[in-house]
Structures are given as structure tokens and as C-alpha cells.
Give the backbone structure.
Amino acid sequence: MITRREFLKNATLLTLGGLLGASLGKPIKVLAAEEVPHLPWPYEELDPEYVRKLGHLGYYALECGGGSFWAIMTALKEKVGYPYTLLPLPSVEEVQKAVEEHEHIQGMMQFGYGGAFGWGSLCGALNGSSNAIVMVTKNWDKIGKMLYRWYEVFPFPSEKSNELASKHQFLVKKYKSDKVLPRNVSHSVLCHVSVGKWCEISGYASGSPERSERCARLTGDVAAKAVELLNADLRGELDTVGKLTLSQTTADCRTCHYKGKNYEMGQFTRGFMQCESCHQDMRPHLDSVIRLKASETKPNELTNVTLAGGAAAAVTGVVAGLWAYSKKGGSKSD
Ligand code: HEC
Ligand code: HEC
């Protein structure tokens, strides 16, 4: 851990070295004392269980977006020191005090609350964790996708979080609720869907202390998972901890619908979300897909890079699958 003082001392030595180097005709890069290093910043293995607790506490002061970001950054600040000391991060004690005294406190990524300014879009715990991820590794895109897919199919809140809360082992003194809360899978990264489906199965209103506590536990869970993935990335083991597997429907839809240049083939949309969580009746669409397939369109035009080789057969399979799927009125199982 490098303290700010040591850093300033090093910077001074560098400056002296720079002057010396210059006098010898050798330019030496001089770091200004307040220079902020480019990303990614150094990452060291963190304890996911500690981050889970920080995330839960962070939620109480900064909600899901601010809480998850604060949790990961604070664990790094405590372990690595500079440059994380450059960030405006309230200390654990300050946050605990603010929570106890109902004091207002403002933090980075706090706008992520309730799906960004309460809008119900991207879950704030994912939003805040994503910003932490992009700050510490070049593999941020891959890790982010793994985290989002995990979120779609994970039953929140985790068993661990339920247990920590019921045994009062989190870092807050007074709990919004210390009950073991119902768990469910939302099949969506959206706050609107995640909260809505949980309210539906639990019977708790969106403004209830239980729903709020559920999101506090979820914030800890998501930050902890992000750290697990970052740890694996650090050890070069990202591929062994998991593989990005889209839902079967999403994989099928993406045969035609993905970010691309061929408008007629369906490339006027993009994304990896679970399509079936919103699109269910595909029957009208199926007719035009079949017509499209029956038209002069060459099979290889209907397909794309991901389908190179055996492409025509694959599309036939997808159309058949789509047909079965539409008859079922949309499958929610995967
Ligand atoms: C074989 C290629 C193909 C597959 C697979 C496919 N689509 Fe499409 N889709 C198209 C094309 C081409 C259009 C544009 C023509 C049209 O509107 O019917 C389209 C249109 C749409 C539309 C726009 C309006 C409409 O007609 O409903 C939606 C929504 C849609 N697709 C969703 C999906 C979803 C969800 C899946 C997976 C369950 C899927 N598509 C699978 C080719 C495909
Ligand atoms: C959170 C809900 C949601 C999810 C998940 C979702 N869509 Fe959509 N999609 C919509 C809405 C809303 C529209 C606009 C209204 C419409 O056309 O039905 C739309 C429109 C579309 C269209 C028509 C063109 C356009 O962009 O307006 C296509 C094609 C489409 N979606 C495909 C997909 C595919 C493929 C997936 C999965 C990768 C997917 N959607 C996931 C909600 C969703």
C-alpha cells in the first residue's frame, strides 16, 4: 500500500531525477503530484464476503448504484491505497454514522438507484458494480456480460445474505427487516422487472421495508459476485469459473436479430437480454420469417458469422424452434 505521503516523496524524487536527467540530456517522464493514473487501476484479490457486507451497508446510505460501487472501491482503497485514495469515498465509519443518524450522504454512482433515477431501467447494483469493473481490468466487457447473465438467472437475495441478515452479521445496526426473505429469479437485468417479480411472489409492496432490505442484500450479492469474477480474472481463471451461456431463446433470436448491417434479415435491433421475458407471441412474426426463408434469399444471407458452416440447417432448426415456442405462447423456463 502506497500512502499519499510516500507517493509525494516518490514524485519529488522523480522531479529531482527529471531535472538531473534533463541536465544530462536524457528526458525522464515526470509525474505531477496530483496526476491521476489512467485506467485500469491496480486490482488485488478481495474477499467477496467482506464486499457482500460492504454492499449491504452501502445500500443503506447510497442505495444500490452508489452502494455496490462504494463497496468494491472501499475494499480496494483499504487494501491497495493509492490511487483509490483519490476517489471521494466516505469511510466505513462515516457511512455507518450517516446510516445511524439518518444523515444525508452523497456518493458516486448513486444516480443508479431504482434503475437510474428511479426510472426502473438497469438494476443499480449492476450499474455500480459495472463502473467498478471498468476501473480495474481490461477484461471489463467479458466480465460485465458474465455478471449480467448470472444476474438474470440467480435467485435473489442469496442464501448467504438471508443468513447474515437473520443472524445480524451485516455491518448495519438497525435492520429494515431481519427476516429470511423469499428468493426468486427475475430473468431480467431491469430494476422494473427484478423488483416487480419479487413483489409479486413475496406479496411485499415496492415501498415496504422488506423490499428495500431485499435490494440491500441483492446489492451485497452483486458486488460480491463482481469481485469473485475479478479475482478469477486476476488469477487468469475467468474461463474456468464460468462460460457466458445465453438463454436458448435469446440464442435462437440472435440467429437473425443482432447488431449488424443487414436490415432485411432482422438486424435492426441489438442486445443479449432474455428476449422471452418480454416478447411472447411470435406468431405474426413467424409468417414473415417463413416467407423470408422461402423467398429467393440464399441461406447464407439469412445467417451470420456465428452460424458459419451448416448455416441453412441451423436456421431451419431455429424457425422450427420459434414455431414451437410461439405455440406455447412463450417459454419462461430458460
Ligand atoms: C430466421 C430469422 C429470425 C429469427 C430466428 C427471429 N426473427 Fe424476429 N424478425 C425477423 C425478421 C426478418 C423480421 C422483420 C420482418 C417482420 O417484421 O416480420 C423480424 C421482426 C421481429 C420483430 C418486429 C415485429 C414483429 O413482427 O413482431 C420482433 C419483435 C421480433 N422479430 C422478435 C423476435 C424474437 C423475440 C425472436 C426469438 C424468439 C425472433 N424475432 C427470431 C427474423 C427473425
Ligand atoms: C425488457 C423487454 C424486452 C426484452 C427483454 C427484449 N425486447 Fe425486443 N422489444 C421490446 C419493446 C418494448 C420493443 C418495441 C415495441 C415492439 O416492437 O414490440 C421491442 C422491439 C423489438 C424488435 C423490433 C424492432 C425494434 O427494435 O423496435 C425486435 C426485432 C426485437 N425487439 C427483438 C428482441 C430480441 C431478439 C430480444 C432478445 C435478444 C429482445 N427483443 C428483448 C422489449 C423487449
